Amino acid sequence: MPSQDFFPQRPDSHPSIYAYKDTNPNHNGLLKVGYTTRDVEVRVCEQFPVIQPEERPYNIVFAESAVRDDGTVFLDHPLHHWLERHDHEGMGGEWFRCTPDDVRAAWVAVRDRTENVEERDQNFKMRPEQAEAVRRTREYFESVNAEGSKRTPKFLWNAKMRFGKTFASYELAKSMGMSRVLVLTFKPAVQSAWEEDLNRHVDFEDWQFVCREGQQYEDCDPSRPIVCFGSFQDYLGLDSNGNIKARHEWVRLTDWDLVIFDEYHFGAWRDSARKLFASIGEDDEKAIHEDVKVTGNEQDETWLPIVTKYFLFLSGTPFRVLNSGEFIKEQIFNWTYSDEQAAKAAWKPSQGPNPYASLPRMVMLTYQMPEDIKRIALNTDTNQFDLNVFFSAEGEGEAAQFKFKSYVQMWLDLMRGQHMPTTVDELKLGEKPAMPFSDVRLLSVLGHTLWFLPNVASCFAMKNLLMERQNTFFHDYHINVCAGSGAGIGLAALPPVQKSMRDPLESESITLSCGKLTTGVTVKPWTGVFMLSNVKSAETYFQTAFRVQSPWTVKDDDGNMQIVKNECYVFDFALDRALTMVSDYSTQLSTEKKGPEQKVGDFIRFLPVLAYDGSRMKEINASEILDIAMAGTSATLLAKRWESALLVNVDNDTLRRLLANDEAINALMSIEGFRSLNDDIKTIINKSEAIKKVKKEKGDNLTQKEKKQLTEEEKEFKSKRKEIQEKLIKFATRIPVFMYLTDYREETLYDVITQLEPGLFKKVTGLDVSDFNLLVSLGMFNSALMNDAVYKFRRYEDASLVYTGINKHEGEKVGLYDTSLSNYDYLYAKQQESMVAPDGSALGNGAKAEAPSPAVAVKPSVKPSALSVSRSTAKATMLGEAPLKKDWVVGVLESHNVRIADRRPKGGSL
């Protein structure tokens, strides 16, 4: 069982505002108004140190919580200011001539922020990484200006959630003397963060905030800096005639100093997403996550009807952006969860107060569902528990019910520790695994949780089930259904959730959502998130998971910070999926040149993963995570990685380089399907450039005939671009076949193609090595994604290479696309500070870990000899050195889509 370190106790803190009167004649008609985090009676009594225990020379007339619905804590000073402004005379210190009703009025005003009085109560400074982001961005912007480039400079902050992107963005604008800033987002719910930082921090005292429901642009003082916040849907959406909405004409007429794209990972700037501007709502979050397609390096902001000096892009999960090569290294600032927690651990007391101390560590608890629960929703093809099926529901509102209601009830009982058969391991260990609503250590911190469900019907069905008689335990929780149109759109969905948390340290709530409030919002009291939906994207998964990592602190009686939330938790009930998400997130967002296992190890050093396998719960290491994640990958899914549009680049710049090179054109035209390549490329480039020029020059002044003509031309060049892309992808899907046939596992794929097996490559793909080199030099292949795809192929292939302890490739390095990993990095990357020995004990510095035993054994399905024969025969066949014997190889080559699972030899694994 994991150590107590994973479940620290929350401090016994109860922030309160109190008022009392005493018997001192000098205080006649006065009340003392104060603040404490301890018991009010104890705190007041301490102010009369000479009295006897039975004496009581005071009368407490007011005592209420000092915690707002959103989890923020207020002291007594704002109440003092309110009383003074309302002519309640003070006598210095905390004594005021007022009544208990006056104190209550002040308390309500401060708690609810009902008075329009600017209270700038934040004066914190930038953390080191925020200052570094501002410095590097400013230096890049200034360097581009110095070069005299005509293209608007742009910069990306790949910074984890809770980095403080809003505050740091304002500091960037202030440091560069900017006075007009436009913030655009696809998620209106993030408005609260932008508004709060600007209105509450002392650094931005003269700044003005413009939003749809607040101050308007025309009412602002033009001599003072202005920040305008809005959604793409509102500011850049089109009316029924296809024109920019008239009420937002000022957006395009203003010369902006900086345009910020917040929540950039949603891809709102893409052609395929523009149609959403006028109609998208909060219930379409899932569609945005899953359906917005990104095809190559095609970023171009020139279509936007706005003028600005600089672009700043913000995202905590910019997977598509990093993979597309849209930004060069000099245009990116990276700050990951691992970076944050490492800085927190490395901070020395001599450096002063730790600025990272309040940022909680995340702990992931994953559970293998008991057989009698998961069998109803077990996918027989993948042998994985299907959460969407399990939590599927029918009906609306109070009539919504789960299809498998009795099984969901069994799951709720499991969460309460009431559906757990006693196992031999439990009897030996004398302890049970930590279940969310039965383990007292978790119960003490899980006062407010977010449950992420598949759809609206599931959310209502869960509320209805929680409220039934048999679930009396959950009747003490306020259940929020944050789904459907009734929950509000954008920021409107947040206040009801916060209101349900009145006095968050004492109350309890569960928020049910299928997309709302899972991006860009801060709800301090949330300490746990339940992943109850089959989220396939690591981007969506961790955007949701990091909602619970917001810091939550209070100040004690001496003004020192107390941390309420030291730890926060992610609960997942699809073990393979959870570990795949950890693997994808840690390897894709880290830009360091490390092996995948080392990247995962760095990540879980600060986000420990505890797995319940049906009998016991234990912490698992990086190798086990990768083994489980890869073992859960079917051959068909593996093949789909080679069908990704991101593997090839078909943006105008790449196509222009291709068109200018006759040798490259001839090389591609030699491949089946590329006969009309030259004309197609010219059509794409000419028409796309012409359309951009027309749109930039005429804007909204196009006639209906011109609009129709442009639409037809857009369809034509996009169709041809897609056609070329699909042909290149078809070529890319032949590469796994080549990898299967070659024996050189230790060399990079590039070297195997160009030096070791050029003849075989020509047979499989139809390209000469010189032609391949030419296409690579033109940037038509994304090497970063190629490396990732080859790595996953190698991991999947491992099971076929080892049989009864015999490993033909033991000790060899492992080649990827254009780089290679040592055997040490590939299999046993040493994590000196985070690795654990097989017995669970920590390893000291310099100690080497033995090869960890995989949590899920992957049995080899074919002996090395059989595999070697099949490969050598297939290879000889391709080179014309042996008769055709393996029709399944021919099938793979003819299909060109590498459906390995369907065409493997009987009993084979590939």
TrEMBL record:
Keyword terms, alphabetized: Coiled coil
Organism of this sequence: Bifidobacterium breve DSM 20213 = JCM 1192
Gene3D superfamilies: P-loop containing nucleotide triphosphate hydrolases (3.40.50.300)
Gene Ontology MF terms: ATP binding; DNA binding; hydrolase activity
InterPro entries: Helicase/UvrB_N, P-loop_NTPase, Phage_T5_Orf172_DNA-bd
Domain Bacteriophage T5 Orf172 DNA-binding residue range list: 25-110
Coiled-coil regions listed in the entry: 703-730
Name recorded for this polypeptide: Bacteriophage T5 Orf172 DNA-binding domain-containing protein
Superkingdom of source: Bacteria
